[in-house]
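pinging the channel bc i need a second pair of eyes. not urgent but kinda urgent?? the chain im working w is below, pasted from the shared doc
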Amino acid sequence: MFDTSIHWTTFFYLLVDVFIVLLVFIRSLISKSWSMHRFIWLGFLFILYNTTGGFLPSKFFPGPLIIQYIITYSVAIILCMFIIYYIYKEYDIVIVKFYFTVRNISILLSGSFVGLFLIPYYITNSLFIARTSFTVPIALIGFYFLWLFHKELIRAKQLDKFMVRRNNLAIVSIASIVLLPILTLIGDYQWLTFSIMNISFYSITLIEIDRYLFFLENKHKIYSSLTSDDENFSIDSKFIYYGLTPREIEIAISILNRKSYKIISEDFFIAEKTASKHASNIFKKTKAKNKKEFLRKFSRA
């Protein structure tokens, strides 16, 4: 396509990703809230991934071919690390904390790329050998991580439909990036590789859309001390006024539903002390001294 190596499906995903990122960016400018800044960065990385992976390798690119592969592999590795970071940070989903932290995953992927891809390529001058030595062990580790991730999520009981949808979409997102090493080993089939990889972004996008709908569905539970003539002044806009993050808004809704920190921790699959920490941040931002004052300020008894 365009006399380059990019496949039409990759170009289509590139356009869709640009549209999504621009839409969220414009909405953030209008609302003067940057609570979605991580999502914007995630979308930007997917745009970069589709661009570099779609247009490279190219005969018009200066320098040796290996430089182009270093660029495409580096972007893909950074993207995968950021997806895990995003899910950990935005949804408080942390798997095997001491082994699969974002830091450890970053060291593992970057170190493996140098030790299992660049060095073998330098020694053998064979892209196939370098690709195989890198992707096979990473794929095995990836599937182990996916198994742990799935096992940890299904361990939770009595989740509401909102959390079940989130967990399922989070698993789909992680599964998509775990498949990347296998897809890379199979060959340069852009239509397949980029379709599966972009599913990861669209899964997270669906989570964010579902989260926004969750806010709208629960706006009747909020009776803020703020006043507004606009009937569409919804729950998220009220709390964003106070600088609450999307995660904190979710916790705030649960508090207004009179749920204990123990129940909140079970609902959102986080530690009870994490739920308490979120609550403390919420009270501080909304200028409420404690839970009792927060409830009095934002809900009807």
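so The chain has two domains: 8-217, 223-298. and Confidence is low (pLDDT under 50) at residues 222-236. — does that match what u expected or am i reading it wrong
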